[in-house]
Amino acid sequence: MRLDELLDELQARIDAVRGTRDRVHSLLEAVVSVGRELDLAQVLRRIVEAAALLVDADYGALGVIGPDGRTLSQFLTVGLTEKEISEIGPLPAGHGLLGEVIHHPEPLRLTELGAHSSSYGFPAHHPPMRTFLGVPIRVRDEVFGNLYLTDKRGGIDFDTEDETVISTLSVAAGVAIDNARLYEGSQRQQRWLRANAEITGSLLSGSPRPAVLELIARRAQEITAARLADISMPVAGAEGLVVEFAVGADSEARQGLVVPFAGTLSGAAHQTGQPVASLHASDDDRYPADVQVQAGLGPAVAVPLGTTAGESRGVLLLARPVGDPAFGDGELEPLVAFAGQAALALELAERRRDAEQIALLEERDRIARDLHDLAIQRLFATGMTLQSVARLVEHEEAAERVSRAVDDLDETIKIIRSTIFGLRTKDRESGPGLRARAARAVGDAATALGHPPRLSMEGLLDTDVPPQIADHVMAVLGELLSNAARHSQATRVGVTLKAGPGEIMLTVSDNGRGIPAQGRRSGLLNLAERAEGLGGTFSIDTPDEGGSRLVWRAPLPTGS
Q1: φ, ψ dihedrals at 89, nearest 5°
Q2: The model scores a pTM over 0.70
Q3: For labelling alongside 139, which of 226, 370, 450, 479 has CA 20 to 30 A away?
């Protein structure tokens, strides 16, 4: 009997040694597996999978702590199906029991997680969980995130050995994460450098400004894996920014959008001249105006494109999908450098355009001087000669022809003088142009509409449209926006202002209830009369998708 007991005890110890050996082997395999990866997303996924496997847990999760140090910016899970994740709803932000490990970065082991004072319970459709093991992951001296493990298989509790194994794995995980971040940072830096070189090369090759803006937005979106990227520029006299180019989610809706300074990420970055970030752009109380136009977006950052007198020359906005990692310091530094380089590139483009404009004006002045000093003087001398010759012509018809030629020369001199005056006054500005006035009016209408309208402007609005017609356009625009705010009940309003050859066209469309057939139309009749008074037209259409489209046209003077 005693011998059997000793043999059983020896067998138990042998099994324990074998179990320990197997566990050590499993831990070493997990460490090697985690350290083999260089892609940060794959490293994090392997860490949480290895942790759940090592302690035989039903469920595992890895929460990445956000830049604020208090909440989770990313949450990876193991053991839950996609259906279960979607039914549970938004991923945890780091409150309750999960926040306990954030605020106190030490291993936490519980036999009944619901009994802990920090436990808030589970949301609807969440599977029941009982045992709990939480261990922080440190990268150098920084707490990067936490490993959360629940429900050890067999219904038993997590023990000291489980805690030791996961703590050991967390040390290896910290090294692997650090290596992955360093590798990712070096790769990203190379991509930023290539993008800067591409932008500079594009400018030096003479690419137009819109093409350069598109290149900046697309490269920034690709490098940061953003869902949305847009570039907005301030417009003189307008209380907001106009999105000149957008790529990614809802890019068509954002193109030409007037972004107010107040309550938006882009507006805050423009006014402060500093990068502004948000963990959840779709529901950030600090930027309520962004919520209406950035639904479904998660982490976002707005970076100024150069600053002048404390305000930016433009803003680059980047936003990722919900659940993606936030923009950390490691990403912001090269992003700010890229934005500064892009701003310098735009500055060079503007300086080149100014130089071209100056050269054009100087050439116009030279032509005007030559016309005045050479052509007019010679025409005048020719006219004087013909006048003196006319007195010597005895044939009446010939004398009349010479007289008509003198009159033609006089008229030609008047035309040339008018042309000279036009050359010297064509580009002189007198107050805000039509482009700035339209942008300001559309921006002001956002309050009454409850959402910012989309604005698109084409053509030489400030040079081809005379002041009198511009005043009519602004009156019509104000009336149409007011009607949309009072009667249409629209959730989307678009404004298009286009100056083409010989015509200016203003289009205001919405997705509201349309214009009732028996409603009051006194305001619309006034708009029609304005158009007819200028020789233009005013039409009202109902698009196939509903709403209304109102088009106001007026001819432009020939040669304007």
Answers
A1: 100, -150
A2: no
A3: 226
